[in-house]
Design goal:
Length: 283
């Protein structure tokens, strides 16, 4: 059904925003497309292409120049969550619970998750952790808060695990990660992010759990993929092994700024077409 406004056909059907249940139903089907988002205009551009937008605590590193995600607080996540929800009409918006906001107890996790959802309009939260977080995931899920899990390489635990190196690169490391994914899925997570693991392990994890597994640095054996948007657009000089650059926006930005600076110094910008004239004057 469509209507016409000023001769232009407009789809009058209300847009349906994806839910956690929609994402859960995509297990084993068309791969799930996910990217990070932190601001309204970027969210609006990503929305038409993505099934899920993650307001990641990676915002601390991407936008604020932090060395890790550990310094990000809940107020920051809520501020950026609101911005992303203003730009998203179709994709499910998931907001990261930052370090220190859910590990203490399941009650702490519920309070902060409920605040994050109610103050942003997001449709789910994400938290890191395996078997030790299963009780918390169950507690949240049973109280109406959809949870996206995160196992494998977990950035919030980077100090405990000695860095950002890939996990599961030897077979004796596999079972704990598989057990973590199973525990989180059985606790009620609608999907699980699997980060930084070898391809055979990613395949094993994806086969072992009933919910979708969304990979980042975990091969195309997963049910979907997520990347930090700014990484895949080429905004940073450092390029992780698992990232493919689909553009070189960073280089384009530098070229554009260089062109602007050159024209300003030559006084060729602003030109006549960029300059206001007096009213009633033709010159």
């Amino acid at each position: 059904m469509s209507t016409t406004q000023k001769g232009i056909a407009v789809d009058a059907r209300p847009k349906r925003q994806a839910t956690a249940k929609n994402i859960a139903s995509m297990k084993g089907g068309t791969p799930i497309v996910c990217l990070t988002a932190y601001i309204t205009p970027m969210a609006a551009r990503l929305d038409k292409h993505c099934d899920l937008l993650l307001v990641g605590d990676s915002v601390g590193m991407v936008l604020y120049g932090m060395d890790s995600t550990l310094g990000v607080d809940l107020d920051t996540m809520i501020r950026h969550g609101r911005a992303v929800c203003r730009g998203a009409e179709q994709a499910l918006v998931v907001i990261d619970l930052p370090f220190g906001t859910y590990e203490e107890s399941k009650e702490q996790a519920f309070r902060n998750a409920a605040r994050a959802l109610s103050e942003t309009g997001a449709g789910a939260v994400k938290l890191e952790g395996g078997r030790e977080m299963a009780e918390t995931v169950s507690f949240l899920s049973n109280r109406g808060i959809p949870v996206l899990g995160h196992v494998g390489l977990m950035p919030q635990s980077v100090h405990a695990h000695g860095g950002y190196g890939a996990r599961g690169r030897s077979v004796d490391e596999w079972q704990p990660i598989i057990d973590d994914a199973i525990a989180i899925a059985e606790a009620g997570a609608f999907a699980v992010v699997l980060e930084g693991v070898a391809e055979p392990l990613a395949r094993k994890v994806t086969e072992a759990v009933q919910c979708p597994v969304i990979g980042i640095g975990a091969s195309n054996a997963c049910d979907g993929q997520i990347l930090v948007t700014e990484d895949m657009l080429g905004l940073f000089a450092i390029n992780p092994k698992f990232v493919k650059r689909f553009a070189e926006i960073g280089r384009d930005i530098e070229d554009a700024i260089g062109g602007y600076a050159d024209e300003v110094r030559k006084r060729s910008f602003p030109a006549e077409e960029h300059t206001y004239k007096m009213r009633g004057s033709n010159s």
